[in-house]
DNA sequence: CGGCCCCTTGAACTACATCAACGGGGGTGG
DNA sequence: CCACCCCCGTTGATGTAGTTCAAGGGGCCG
């Protein structure tokens, strides 16, 4: 039952058998809660377990000298936050809790056992890593070649679909518990400029965003401005 | 013998047994040459085989309206260019030959067979995907929060180590067969500005770059300017 | 020999950053 | 329970890194 959110996410990629489901349930040996602002995983560490998000938002980030920060990934419930640490061993970045989080814990021993005996499940977990990479590539495109408004629109499109995929969005509305400063570190923009872009998006009737609730007011135009194509999310059930 | 470059690359991550080596050799059923400027793989396609680079440079890229282009990855000999297409099925970007290339071809059937019976080799191939993702994250950090000069310096550090890992660099020197326009599309900069940054790097005695040959003249300072930490490349043999 | 990349330079422009300041709301300590 | 304070969103003014436009020159290939 711990792994319910994770399984729902993996089921977007391919059908998961009952046997596989049970294996995942048993692999998630326990859970942990992490306070807002705390690190789930730290740069330089060599984790012996991987974490998936059950509730809350998390962010991978890197720090540079002069206090600059870049967020390289946002994670929502169901995401396997540091699955790659099983393969890559040493963390090259940290992961922090954007909100209070509960995470499921899967020991690397359990992942190894799955990789030894469960080729199909292993492939589906591989899809997870590959889709993370695809999202990274899209972010590179957006930071590199889109305007601040286009880029922001793109991120909203992406988050909406990802949250919808795990049942956390309805009626073009979802929770976005990020501050504008955190959004700036995600988009590679200053806080001030994020604020102006958001106001422009409101003025154009693209979105509303009050408190933690975002409503997409004009989905077709938001997609069009962002040049959004959902292919990179691989949200289609296929035999893998 | 076809897969020699690929195997050399994988051996940077972990020891590859003779049996695994032979499997890879047999999986690489044939090779192909691709002319400079041609696409190896096209966005929207559903490849039934994956390609690794034997010789030449290749780039993954996305196009935006108004003719803008962003390169999201550079590939050098030994790189498994679209291994992820085995898992993700539909390409969300294209891959082009920066120079004339020869590529080895591995049918997805062969990759599936490996995934069914070769857990260790499957994990090592997974490292390949995970390291690609780590490089993507580093690019996000560099585009998002570094100056043009810092970012360029970082890319040169990365390329030097990656080329050195496959025996294509010596004495702080390597071949970089990119035009300044292509480098701009890689860094998210205009051609004009790339030119000015390169000149600044030359003026500071960091590098020389004549024709296709780059020489790193001051490796410690180049790394320091770039805030370069090679951890993300995972170039250490470890049991995986 | 001609044409076309590719590198280079100059000048003008602009998207976004930086600096500074203020108000409101929610949590905390007295 | 109230007061304070800090975080967060917001706004204005100014600064600048990088873009865009334009043009020339050199080398290589057909």
Number of domains of chain A: 2
Detail the poorly predicted runs of chain A. Answer: none
Distance, first to last CA of chain A: 24 Å
User: Number of helical segments of chain A?
Assistant: 9
Give me the strand/helix succession of chain A: HHEEEEEHEEHHHEEHHEEH
User: What's the CATH topology label of the largest domain in chain A?
Assistant: Jelly Rolls
Structural class category of chain A? alpha+beta
Radius of gyration of chain A: 18 Å
The CATH H-level superfamily of the largest domain in chain A is Jelly Rolls
Please give the most extensive interface between any two protein chains, plus how many residues each contributes. A-B, 50 and 50 residues
| Lateral arrangement of strands in the main beta sheet of chain A | 2-6-4-5
Say what oligomer this is. Answer: homodimer
User: Largest sheet of chain A at a glance?
Assistant: 4 strands, antiparallel
Mean pLDDT of chain A: 95
Domain HTH crp-type (chains A, B): 146-220
Keywords (chains A, B): DNA-binding, Transcription, Transcription regulation
Protein name (chains A, B): Crp/Fnr family transcriptional regulator
InterPro entries (chains A, B): cNMP-bd_dom, cNMP-bd_dom_sf, Env_Response_Regulators, HTH_CRP, RmlC-like_jellyroll, WH-like_DNA-bd_sf, WH_DNA-bd_sf
């Amino acid at each position: 039952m711990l792994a319910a959110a994770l399984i729902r996410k993996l089921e977007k990629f391919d059908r998961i058998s009952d046997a596989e489901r049970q294996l995942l349930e048993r692999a998630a040996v326990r859970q942990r809660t992490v306070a807002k602002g705390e690190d789930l995983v730290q740069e330089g560490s060599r984790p012996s377990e991987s974490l998936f998000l059950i509730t809350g938002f998390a962010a991978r980030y890197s720090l540079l000298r002069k206090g600059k920060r870049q967020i390289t990934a946002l994670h929502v419930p169901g995401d396997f936050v540091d699955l790659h640490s099983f393969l890559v061993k040493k963390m090259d970045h940290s992961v922090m809790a954007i909100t209070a989080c509960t995470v499921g814990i899967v020991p690397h021993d359990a992942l190894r056992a799955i990789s030894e005996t469960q080729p199909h499940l292993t492939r589906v977990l591989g899809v997870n890593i590959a889709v993370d990479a695809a999202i990274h590539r899209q972010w590179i495109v957006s930071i590199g070649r889109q305007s601040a408004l286009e880029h922001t629109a793109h991120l909203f499109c992406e988050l909406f679909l990802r949250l919808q995929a795990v049942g956390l969005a309805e009626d073009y509305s979802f929770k976005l518990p990020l501050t504008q400063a955190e959004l700036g570190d995600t988009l590679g923009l200053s806080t001030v400029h994020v604020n102006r872009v958001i106001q422009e998006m409101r003025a154009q009737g693209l979105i509303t965003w009050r408190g933690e609730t975002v409503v997409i007011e004009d989905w077709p135009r938001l997609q069009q401005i962002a040049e959004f194509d959902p292919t990179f999310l691989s949200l289609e059930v296929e035999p893998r």
